[in-house]
Structure formats: C-alpha cells, structure tokens
UniProtKB/TrEMBL annotation:
Gene3D superfamilies: P-loop containing nucleotide triphosphate hydrolases. One of its GO terms (cellular component) is cytosol. Residues 30-214 form the Guanylate kinase-like domain. Its EC number is 2.7.4.8. It comes from the Eukaryota. It comes from Macrostomum lignano. This is guanylate kinase. GO terms for molecular function: ATP binding; GMP kinase activity. InterPro entries: GK/Ca_channel_bsu, Guanylate_kin-like_dom, Guanylate_kinase, Guanylate_kinase_CS, P-loop_NTPase. The keyword Cytoplasm does not apply.
Amino acid sequence: ICKLQRLPISFVGIVSSSRRIAAMSASTGIRPIVFSGPSGSGKSTLIQHLMERHPGCFRFCVSHTTRQPRAGEKHGQHYWYVTEAEMLADIDAGKFIESTHFAGNRYGTSYKAVTDVINSGQIPVLDVDVQGVKSFKAAKLQPPPTYVYIKAPSMTDLEQRLRARCTDDDEKIRLRLAEAEAGNAYADQAGAYDVVIVNDNLDAAFAELDKFLADDVARALAVKASAS
C-alpha cells in the first residue's frame, strides 16, 4: 500500500480504474469488444449491423475528441467534445485507457466510458486505431477485451472506397492509406487480434463476425435475464 501511495497520481488513477473494470467484468463475464481497422473498411457498418441484430446487447463507449462536431453529431452521443487543454489534463491524470493524435485532433477512450457500459449490463464496443489497441493491451484489463480487426480486400479497393465517400481531400486520403498499411502490418502479426475479417462481401463478413461473437452475446443475454 505504501508503494502505491508514492506512485504518481496518473498511475494510481490507471490502477484503480483498471481494477474497477476487472471487478465489474468478473461479476458479469462481459468483456469489451475492441474493433480496429482503417476508414473505408466497412467497420462502422458491421458494428451497426451487429447492434441491430442484437438490440440491447452492445453499446458504444463514447470517446472524447478535440475536433469540432460535424453536422448532425451530438455531444455525448457521437463524441464528448472537449478542448485540447481539457483532454491533455485528463490524459495526464490517468483517466484515459488510450488516446491518439490524427490530422490535428486528439481522440481517446476514458476508463469511465467503459465502466459505464459494463455497469449497464451491456457489452462495451470500442473503435480505435492500432495505437489504441496497443494501449488497451498495455492496460492489462482483466478479463482481456476481444480484439477484432476489419480490413478491405486490398489497398486499391480501400482507396476507391475512400474516394467514393467524397469526404476527404487528397492529403487526408494519403494519411488514411498510410495508416491502413501500418494497421494491416500490425494485424498480420501473430496474436495481434483475436480475429481478422476481410470485408470483401458485407453479408459474408457480418456472418463471420456474428458467429465469432456468439458467446459474448449469450453472456450478455444471460446477465440481462438474471437481472430481470
């Protein structure tokens, strides 16, 4: 105990937050599902289908960001929109499991975002980049999250999808493709993810994802049934 008291405040916050997640996960058997994959891989569509197929089982952990809200986005629903100073202060205080910097903006997942979902009896769903996956693993959450990587069939196909969206300029597309190459390289490493799904056909990719997460869904339904 004395050693813990001498640790920096940020580390103490990480330890206590990680223990809270472990305690709640242990009592319910619910594990976070950490998704990763490049923009344009179809990851968001697959997650949406998963939530529609199993209503009430999954819930997004709302991340923080320093970027401005886009049209139609709501504070607390799509992101928690904060200032750079606010986010850096919370990162220094150990309130985040992971955080990253992309295209001039910060993004991150707080411990509270995960504990709030587990406490509701639902499965936390997170969408993070490769660095976020590494940060989650470094946090050593128990039981460990399930890691899912979604990828496009090829880089050529991915670029076509990104350009078809007409939301990014050439420079941002270049950055996204470079990020995708790094992400794919990490996904190729043994043990990086629990499953890697190539989204060449949406229906087939969803069937693979749904089958892989069947046990997680069963646990969440059992928790919901016992609470009713």
